[in-house]
Fold:
Amino acid sequence: MEERIITSQECISEGLVALNKLEPKFRQAINAIDEIPLRRTSGGFDRLLSTIVSQQLSVAAADAIWKKIELAGLNQINKIKKVSDQDLRQVGLSKQKVRYVRSLANAKINYDALKAMPTSEVVSELTQVSGVGNWTAEIYAMFSLGRADVFAPGDLALQEATRLLFNLPERPSEKELRVMAKEWSPWQAVAARLLWSYYNDQKKREGIR
Structure:
């Protein structure tokens, strides 16, 4: 069966209606949020690089580094291959992130082919690249490819939002949240958007770029 692609706010609305029926707890979050952002982005090297930059950083910190990368033209494969590690460090990348950026620049990813792959294969393909874990691959599938039935249970903001909404004693682990999210199929990506918005509403800070 062909996977559903989120293309518009109408898709988000459809997903919210379904989630409201699947899980009564979501009603509280839906009522607290004025509008759930679409958050669709372009795909390709530039976008996957941006997601790697965002790993384990606050939204503000990731935005600041990404602006420096764009100004230096270091969001382009050819430019990255021509500069030194020190040049990459000067825009705010850690030594580990420099290795990840090099790995991505040298990877032979067919970004157009990803559009036709099942989500599970997209995640499998991308996680072969050093520095691209499940979170990075799932975020790419969710926002750049628009997949409706993908979640990112390793995301701390999603874990915290789930703890708050479901009145859990502690944040669910990645494994626990992955099991929970399966119950929200085929609209896991809308559930993720709702939970990020709920996190923002409750914590007054962004949970995702």
Remarks:
- DSSP finds 13 helices and no strands in the chain.
- The mean pLDDT is 96.
- The chain has two domains: 9-37+149-203, 45-144.
- The CA atoms of residues 161 and 195 lie 6 Å apart.
